[in-house]
Amino acid sequence: MSIRFQVGVKSVAAVGLSLLLLTGLACSSKEEAKPAEAVIGVSLLNLSSEFIVMISESMEQRAGELGVELIITDAQRNAEKQVQQVESFIAQGVDAIILNPCEVEGSSPAVARAHEAGIPIVNVNSETRIEPSAFVGSHDEESARLAMEFIVQRLGGNGNVVMMHGYMGQAAQIKRAQGAREVLEANPGIRLLSEQTAEWDRAKAMALMENWIQSYGDQINAVFAHNDEMGMGALIALEQAGLKDRIIVASVDAIADALGAVSEGRLDATVFQDSVGQGRTAVETALKLSRGEGCEPEVYIPFQLVTLENIDQFR
Amino acid sequence: MQPGQASRLAEWISRYGLLLALVLLAGLLSCLTPNFATAQNLLIVLRQISINGILAVGVTYVLLTGGVDLSLGSVVALTGVVAAGFAHPGEYPVILAVLVGILAGSGCGLVNGLIVTRGKVAPFIVTLGMLTVARGLALVVSGGRPVSNLSSSFTVLGGGAIIGIPIPVLILCVVAFASHVFLKRTRPGRYIYAVGGNEAAAYASGINVTAVKTLAYAVCGGLAGLAGIVLAARITTGQPNAGIAYELDAIAAAVIGGTSLSGGVGGIVGTLLGALLMGVLNNGLDLMNVSSYWQQIVKGLIIVGAVWFDQKGRR
Question: Which CATH architecture has domain A35-138+276-301?
Answer without folding.
Answer: 3-Layer(aba) Sandwich (3.40)
